[in-house]
Each structure stands twice: as C-alpha cells, then as structure tokens.
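Good morning,

Attaching, inline, the backbone tokens for the sequence recovery test we're adding to the shared suite. The designed sequence is right after.
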C-alpha cells in the first residue's frame, strides 16, 4: 500500500472565519497575550525571591506557650 505523490496519509482542513481579519487587531490581541504571559512569568519570579529573614536566625520576637 504505497501512497503516490498526490496522496497523503492525513487530510487537514481548516474553517476560516467568515469576517475579514484586520492585521492591527490580530497583532494587538497577540501582543496582549504576550504581555499577559510576561506578567505571569515576572510575578512567578518575584514570588521565588528570598526577601524574608532566615528561619535559622533568632527572630526579633518570642513565642510563649
């Protein structure tokens, strides 16, 4: 069962939107999604920072039972 040069094992079809696509709106949506992704990455990296005092050092307060 060898496929000839004009036959493909997989057929892929796409339904394109009926409305006219504007390059400016497509770019702005892509840019907005990129900005959202960058904000998530930066927020994640800021949470990973170790600005809190170490738990090994003596705390400036005492806990009494």
């Amino acid at each position: 069962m060898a496929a000839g040069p004009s036959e493909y094992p997989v057929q892929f079809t796409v339904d394109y939107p009926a409305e006219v696509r504007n390059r400016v709106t497509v770019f702005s949506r892509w840019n907005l999604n990129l900005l959202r992704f960058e904000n998530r990455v930066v927020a994640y990296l800021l949470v990973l920072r170790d600005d809190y005092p170490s738990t090994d050092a003596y705390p400036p307060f005492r806990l009494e039972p």
